[in-house]
Amino acid sequence: MTKASYDEALRRLLLHEGGYTNHPSDPGGPTNLGITIVDYRKYVKLNATAADVKAMTLDEARQIYRAKYWDAQRCDDLPAGVDYAIFDYGVNSGCGRSGKVLRRCLKLVDNTSVANDAVIAAANAANAKVLVAAICDERLRFLQSLRTWDVFGKGWGRRVAEVKAYSLALATGLPVKSEAATAPAAGKGAVPVAKGAQQGSVGAIAAAGAAAAQQAHASGAGAWMVAAIAVAALALAVGGWLFWQWRQQRQQVAVA
Q1: Direct distance between the N- and C-terminal alpha carbons of the chain, in angstroms, rounded to an integer
Q2: Which residues are bridge partners to 21 per DSSP?
Q3: Residue 184 lies in a domain
Q4: Do both 115 and 33 map to the same domain?
Q5: CATH number of the domain that 134 lies in?
């Protein structure tokens, strides 16, 4: 697509994403212009706070979208309509999911999300309208399966419908209006990380360490060896818990 086409795709996407949010049900955490604090730290400022995300400029957001979503999914090489459908899907639910869905809709293996030459060739050989419809229909089914659907479902449903309509118009070459979303659709349509996932990992480390110490004792290892194994496991568990706490604090920075 041309630069003008990308600019229009981004303009429409930003109308869906809206401004700054920090919804407790959104797994993305502090988010502005659709960019999460994690991505802002990766592409702009390593130790960014929620206040930095809130002050994000449009140019910063544009650079992140281009690098992480548009170029990463090779949208310039995809058919008109398919490019926008995949671009918006990747932003909302992650390129890992949108890339696999594209492959699945093209009847290709989906054990990876990489948009390689085989994917691009298959996409350009397919019926663009059929492909757009398949991508958007699968996207809606996935969003409806998320436990955050009750919170964000109304906006997500509207967003998918608008993306589908615009993408189908692009695929058929029909003229489209310059207007896009009627209101922002907040929340990232991604599988939320279980709140106890990290604590569970810490517990698993401790349990594995205890089992190893018990096995060493049963095998006749000396008391000092058993104690060393137990201490090492405890240190790993404590270290894991402290790291999880640090990550939680970084992700939940209060807005200044």
Answers
A1: 40
A2: 31
A3: no
A4: yes
A5: 1.20.141.10
pTM of the model: 0.69
Q: How far apart are CA 146 and CA 126, in angstroms?
A: 30
- Render each residue's pLDDT in the chain as its tens digit; 256 residues: 456 688 999 999 998 887 898 887 777 789 999 899 999 999 999 999 999 999 999 999 999 999 999 999 999 999 999 999 999 999 999 999 999 999 999 999 999 999 999 999 999 999 999 999 999 999 999 999 999 899 889 999 999 999 999 999 999 987 776 654 455 666 677 776 554 444 444 444 445 455 555 555 555 656 676 466 556 656 665 555 454 444 444 433 332 2
Assigned domain for 145 exists: yes
What is the spatial distance between Cα 170 and Cα 136, in angstroms, rounded to a whole number? 14
Q: Which two tokens stand for residue 177?
A: 């209006």
**8-state DSSP, 31:** E
